[in-house]
Amino acid sequence: MLERIDSDIASRLRLISLWIDTHRQSILKVINVFLVFLAIVAVSSLIARLGFFLSPAEEQWAQALEQMMLYLFALQAFLKLALAPNRLRHLKERWLELAIFTVILLYLIFPFAVERVLTSLNPQLTPENITSLYLVVTQFLVILALLPATLRYSGRVMTANVQPATVLLVSFILLTILGTGFLLLPKATAGKSVALVDALFMATSAVCVTGLSTVDITTTFSHTGHWILLVLIQIGGLGIMTLTTFFAAAAGTSARLKEYIALRELIGEESLGKIRTILFQIGFYTMVVEALGAVLIYYTLELDSSLLPSSPVFFAVFHAISAFCNAGFALLSDNLAAPMCKYNFAFLYVVMLLVVIGGLGFPALSSLSGFVHAKILRKPNARLSVHAKLVFFTSAILIVLGAIGFYALEFSHVMHGMTHSEKVMSAFFHSIVARTAGFNMLEIGALSTPTLFLLIALMWIGASPSSTGGGIKTTTAALALMNIWAIASGKNKIELFRRRIPDRVVTRAFSTALLSLLYIAIALFLLLITEQEKNFKFEALLFEVVSAVSTVGLSTGITAELSDAGKLVIIASMLIGRVGFLTVIIALIRPQNHGVYDYSEENVLVS
């Protein structure tokens, strides 16, 4: 009898296995569709909890829904493992995803064990505190559960038959739209909601790490709103493509060749073989520098929590990320001109250092770390790349010349009454932040017209390639000047540090500079039309346009007074400036096939 039952069970299992083998792809499609549905419900629940004021009953419903989502997320992950033809390979490829869901399941099944661990660590953890912590952890786990699917879909988008420039442009636009929606949530503002155009402006400014503001972010946005801005600054500073590929690489997922090709342009690395290494270096530098910056800011400022819109820790972290990403956002109404910051030299040194490091660009930092590492190990042929040398040399010249110019023009004007050390500090501070970080410790609108012109020139040049800053870039300006010098001296090539610069790089530098000037002229013309009734000064509008295009964030004080049409012009300028002029044009123009032939040359007079 028992043998017959065993035989029946074995027969049924074989039938089930055969049915699964036959319908595996269909089942996986259904699970994937179900996963998308789960993601939509989970995100909606999170947005409701974090962005809206819910009643206690609604909170309980949302919490129960999130827990159910976590169970279902874990179920689909283990179902996919069970359905995989090669489970060992599936486990190897998706170890992070399965590890996450294992932790989630353990937390859901044994919450009391976690509670006991917490109370053993700190007896003061009351049931109310533990409940709050449980809610936070649940929301964190929901976000964590969405991470694997997000990385997978991001990889698919990057390897689709779409130009990398188009993916880059669309990623920034989508992030801006998402940011706008989040800033319009009721919990994002401290009082009444901001207007749609202001939410769009602030989201664009954060994503493009610009720092221009149409509202006072300190008093207009709540702590939730400040968190939204911080996340947008961090994602926008590094780029969505860089972040998703970094996390995918960190999770052990092998990126495909197309993903690396898409990233090559973004991070400025010619060798595809080095991109994975560069990605890890970007992640490492960012985490270490921002963490050290936050610690130093925390201890250099005498933070009085009663005078801050947030906790001292969040204040320090926000300004460290804002400085490293060259965003220029500050949680003080007077920016860094506030008394607690203005004459605190230690704090200002930290901010300047973060801005400079963030503005040098990851390829230059990578070359520097490789050079230092080789020197320590006493390896032969240790050398900095030509790119790194040009970046360091040009940046140093711009900082020094900018500071000298600022000091000479303002020492008896805005800086009148300051001590000599305060004048020197102010000159160096504004020389550095003018090249992409929008912090200010003096009132920009009170500066003389020549100083504004000097800052416009510094803003136009901006930071270095593949950095968190904007502008036409230091190397572009340097190569354009050297090419002019080469033409004037009768040379037909540019030689630098015993290397010859390729002609295509020089052509690209001139194209970028020309496109930038052309766009600034068009945007300024549009602002002159839209702001006719406001009677703004010409230099104030020019300053605003260059600040937006170069993603700097300095303003003479007219940003909040711009008309809605004028704000849209600035929004477009920030977006185009962050993505890059050539990248936008490449994204918008359909590539054409060119024949393998060359016509005979004929001269054209150009001057």
Q: What is the gist of this entry?
A:
The protein has 607 residues and is mostly helical.
Structural class: mainly alpha
Rounded to an integer in angstroms, the radius of gyration calculated over CA atoms is 27 Å
Q: Biggest sheet, strands in spatial order?
A: 1-2
List the uncertain runs.
none
Number of strands: 2
Taken in chain order, the helices and strands follow as HHHHHHHHHHHHHHHHHHHHHEEHHHH
Task: Tell me about this structure.
This protein has helices spanning 2-51, 56-83, 87-93, 95-109, 111-121, 127-159, 164-183, 196-207, 217-220, 223-238, 240-250, 257-267, 275-300, 312-324, 339-342, 345-360, 362-376, 386-410, 420-433, 449-461, 474-488, 503-530, 538-549, 564-579, 581-588, and strands at 494-496, 499-501. The protein is mainly α and 607 residues long. The protein contains 25 helices and two strands. A hairpin with a 2-residue loop joins strand 1 (494-496) and strand 2 (499-501). It has a two-stranded antiparallel sheet with strand order 1-2. It is globular and about 100 Å long. The model has no long low-confidence stretch (mean pLDDT 82).
